Automatic annotation (TrEMBL):
Pfam (any one): adh_short
Domain of life: Bacteria
InterPro entries assigned: NAD(P)-bd_dom_sf, SDR_fam
Tagged with keyword Oxidoreductase: yes
Protein name: Short chain dehydrogenase/reductase
Species: Microbispora siamensis
TM region positions: none
Gene3D superfamilies associated with the record: NAD(P)-binding Rossmann-like Domain
Entry keyword set: Oxidoreductase
Claim: Thylakoid is one of the keywords in the record: no
Family: Belongs to the short-chain dehydrogenases/reductases (SDR) family.
Length: 235
């Protein structure tokens, strides 16, 4: 499978208005992307000529299909959009759990189904899915569970998309300094740092990116007792 370089490519970044998504838009532009479709749930503007903003609700198949009808030149897809709705699995509002899975798991799947034919038609390209260190650790209710499911989804998509020469990258990261975790008082990586590591991994032909030291340590601990992972997540 050919390694995908960003220079000259057309990219879509879901959730590109702020946080890590905005940093990914900046990073791919800095590396020479020809065009970037940057999406958000509501309309917004970006004055850079290479950026095309678009409304997208990843919970809606119709919304995803509408984007795919416009963005037929896309070669790299970053599935960055996600939500964190803290609530216990046993006693929290069940609708918060289903919404979390709908955005964090089925959202990337809707995007993959809509854009796989486009990527194939444009030479294969790449699909990059954002996971979390909580893909492996217990915690954060439905959010952690959804990221574990998203990790599995990415691994299965990698097998299915190999036949069309699409590079599938799964990204795991700990706390990133964004609005999503602004209330959590723990060390955080900057969005720019994580975005650079993600694109470095993509351009190196990686199938998995461990975006920070916390994630590297968590991955290394997977061979140990599951209790160690649960305790780590509680700290």
């Amino acid at each position: 499978m050919a390694v995908v370089a960003v220079a000259g490519k057309v990219v879509v970044v879901t959730g590109g208005r702020r946080g890590l998504g905005a940093a990914l838009v900046d990073e791919v532009l800095a590396r020479g992307a020809r065009k970037v479709y940057s999406t958000a749930r509501s309309a917004y503007t970006d004055d850079r000529p290479e950026v095309v903003t678009a409304e997208l609700e990843v919970r809606s198949a119709a919304s995803v299909a509408a984007l795919a009808e416009v963005a037929t030149d896309v070669e790299i897809v970053f599935n960055n959009a996600g939500i964190l709705l803290p609530a216990p699995l046993l006693t929290g509002d069940f609708e918060r759990a289903t919404e979390t899975f709908d955005v964090n798991v089925f959202g990337p799947l809707r995007m993959a189904r809509a854009f796989a034919p486009i990527l194939a038609a444009n030479g294969g390209g790449a699909l990059v899915n954002m996971h979390s260190v909580l893909s492996w650790l217990a915690g954060s209710g439905a959010y952690g569970a959804s990221k574990a499911a998203a990790w599995s989804l990415t691994n299965s998509l990698r097998l299915e998309l190999a036949r069309q020469n699409t590079q599938v990258v799964g990204v795991h990261a700990g706390f990133i300094d964004t609005d999503m975790v602004s209330a959590i008082e723990l060390p955080k990586a900057t969005p720019a740092e994580v975005a650079a590591r993600i694109v470095d991994g993509l351009e190196a032909g990686a199938t998995e990116v461990l975006a920070d030291d916390v994630t590297v340590a968590a991955k290394a601990a997977l061979s140990g007792p599951v209790e160690r992972l649960t305790i780590s997540a509680a700290r």
